[in-house]
Amino acid sequence: MKRILILILALAPTAALAHPGHASGGFEGLLHPLTGGDHLLAMLGVGLWAVQQTQNRLALPLTFLTAMAAGFIAASLGLALPAVEPLILASVILLGAATAMTLRASLAVALPLTAMFGLAHGAAHGSEGTGTAFALGMITATAALHLAGVALGVTLNRRAMRLAGGATLIAGLGLAFTG
After folding, report:
1. pTM
2. Contact 22, 123 (CB under 8 A)
């Protein structure tokens, strides 16, 4: 567990570089969720929190992906969504807190919250004019990270899951204060 915490904390300084201009290719889109600490933590966090839900474990990841695509399209068409960067940071912090507290929210609460986070993550890049290839790469990598979070969550015991959530929460706070 110490290795996970060290990895998460090592990613914290990337907050200041979370959303500079990106190249518009699919490869860059694939890499971005893997190299941006805020995105990596949020994507894994969606998967971890999904494991704690008593309902369908894929509902949260699919909601996030759909909303992320919608946010990307809306922003690329010029629709400015409010508070995109604060919502991205909030996604890391709140997903970490929900996992640490083993919060089992109803789908009526969890789905809109997850959708709001997905919209923000998509809008952050749609407004940059990164293009369709970037979006498809980002969606693919995001789906893979969601599934990795689900797979990790299935293998962790309750205590380790809470520690992973707590580490994500701490890293999210670190991102908020260093960015």
Report:
1. 0.85
2. no
